[in-house]
């Protein structure tokens, strides 16, 4: 069955607004799991603007489903990942000045330098996902350098302003999913997905898991995190037809 992993970064964003103790992303993760989330995601950024190291270590202890650590491909993060041993790591590009991850990894351009990086994670028993744009070349290179999973970047689809643009981006995503599946990769998708635009991507059969953060945490302010998670799961499964 198609899975939903919930990114709890923005609970940490709210906590860091006062540099205090609440709300705690660890509590949010536990409640998301109770509501049926299949996994928990955090992005430990170099500048620690939201998630802190303490969150990651606690999450490793308490998450009962799957913990996915999003991170940049740096030596510091590699050391942390090998110590914490999450279920999987998603490698993302990271720029200090960005508000959120702005695009997929350039595997086509920088792939070779990632080969030893992926190897060390995989030798540590960690599955590796690469966050890539829906571009067949990026996906082919991801397979060549040994990725287990690709997470297709849905950001441009989510930002589409017209129906035509949306259709064009959706077609790219569908083609990327087909390529990835044909190459034997597992396929996840995410970024910018919300309770409206999920309806376009949820029916795409090859996508095994969606990574969603901002829209779920935003809704949880009004309806509570358990209901927000449950509503997203119901939408995804209804659109998928089970
Ligand atoms: N996938 C990746 C690789 C991301 O970097 C993010 C944002 O942290 C997400 C998914 C979730 O995006 P959003 O918060 O827009 O749902």
Beta-strand share of residues:
15-25%
Tell me, briefly, the overall form.
globular
Number of helices: 11
Instruction: Please mark out the parts with pLDDT under 50 across 5 or more consecutive residues, or reply none.
Output: none
Could you explain how this protein is built, in words?
- The chain has an eight-stranded parallel beta barrel with strand order 1-2-3-4-5-6-7-8, surrounded by seven helices.
- It has one domain (3-240): TIM Barrel (Alpha-Beta Barrel).
- It is an alpha/beta fold and 242 residues long.
- The N and C termini lie close together (7 Å).
- It has eleven helices and eight strands.
- It binds pyridoxine-5'-phosphate (PXP).
- Pyridoxine-5'-phosphate binds at residues 7, 9, 43, 70, 90, 92, 100-101, 131, 151, 190-193, 211-215.
Structural topology:
Blueprint: E1 3-7, H1 9-16, H2 25-34, E2 39-43, H3 53-62, E3 67-71, H4 75-84, E4 88-91, H5 107-123, E5 127-132, H6 136-144, E6 149-153, H7 155-158, H8 163-182, E7 186-190, H9 198-201, E8 209-212, H10 214-223, H11 225-240
Parallel strand pairs: 1-2, 1-8, 2-3, 3-4, 4-5, 5-6, 6-7, 7-8
Helix pairs in contact: 2-3, 6-8, 10-11
The structure holds pyridoxine-5'-phosphate (PXP).
